[in-house]
Amino acid sequence: MEDVEAVRIALHLGKITLLGHSYGGALAQAYALKYQKNLTHLILASTWSNTKELNQVFVRMKQKMPPELRDRINRMEAEGLFGHGLDYQKNRYSNDYFVAAWGEGIFLISIRTGLTRTTILSRRKYQLGPLPRMWGPHGEYVVDGNLKSVEYTDRLASIHSADAHFGGRS
After folding, report:
1. Cα–chain-centroid distance for residue 60?
2. Binning pLDDT at 50, 70 and 90, where does residue 108 land?
3. Minimal CA–CA distance to 32: which of 12, 53, 4?
4. How many Cα atoms occupy the beta-carbon half-sphere of 73 within 13 Å?
5. What DSSP state is assigned to residue 101?
6. Which of 68, 90, 120, 169 has the fewest other C-beta atoms within 10 Å?
């Protein structure tokens, strides 16, 4: 959020409209809670405001899976998801886990909610970057990395600016 503020200042933008999607939504909420005086609008899309609640959604998703799939995913998560295979593979999920967690799990559930194939493929790319630190090392169905501190729901209604009031669903 400090980088967002530094860019706003460096570009002499004044008040801004901030859009946050997915992880960017968590970042945008943190920015708005600290720098709301610099916003005209806050737009959040496909994001979350409470990691504890998000983790409960993941618990329910796993409960709705076929038992064989859930057991297979649980077994791979218990064995540890990183450090396997050839050197270039050790910092990413195995193909078996990725296919089970996303292809058979999240993708099939998400078809009903409109998640696109592009979103799923972009998720694969994130594995090589910040995802294990942000999301956590234990897989796709629990956030226990540095994003576990996203607990903004109770404070979102406090976000105001001189030009706008932010509120509504989180």
Report:
1. 17
2. low
3. 4
4. 25
5. I
6. 169
93-125 burial, b if ≥16 CB within 10 A, otherwise e?
beeebbebbbebbbbeebeeeebeeeeeeebee
Q: Which residues pair with 17 in a beta bridge?
A: 41
If phi > 0 it is left, if psi is from -120 to 50 it is alpha, else beta; for residue 46 that is: left
What's the Cα-to-Cα distance from 119 to each of 22, 47, 84, 102, 123, rounded to whole Å? 10, 13, 25, 11, 6
8 Å CB contact between 35 and 10: no
Q: Which residues pair with 50 in a beta bridge?
A: 151
Encode pLDDT of 30-83 as tens digits: 999 999 999 999 999 989 999 999 999 889 989 988 999 999 999 999 988 888
Angle between helix 2-10 and helix 23-35 axes, rounded to 10 deg: 70
Q: What are phi and psi of 152, to 5 degrees?
A: -105, -10
H or E element in which residue 43 lies? strand 39-45
CA dist., res. 89 & res. 74, Å (int): 20
- What pTM was computed for the model? 0.73
